[in-house]
Input
Amino acid sequence: QVQVVESGGGLVEAGGSLRLSCTASGLTLTFDAYTVGWFRQAPGQEREGVSCSRRSGGSIAYADSVKGRFTISRDNAKNTLSLQMNALNLEDTATYYCAGALAPKRFWAYAGQYDYWGQGTQVTVSS
Output
């Protein structure tokens, strides 16, 4: 059974940084075979795509709201996905989820095509 576990969330002041990590286990294929990404959901709002790293050495994508501030990276040997978040602002407050898709066919930020999800880690940015 696939398990996805996120870590690294917390409380940070505006302008600060956090690094999220996600580790997957129980995969039937190598980690490189999956498109993996980060999503977030704030209270009362829909889940939105933050960033993704496409499978098999494919490209990286970011939501416009985080471009230039967030950096996604993956370590296929360790089945790990990370998100370095800099210059955090109040609008970044949300629960962040790591997700993996085996055969995504739609725009990367479409959450419905992701097969595996973590439980989420809370990021709270204070003023």
In short: The mean pLDDT is 96. The two ends are 40 Å apart (CA to CA). Residues 9 and 123 are 5 Å apart (CA to CA). The chain is about 0% helix and 50% strand.
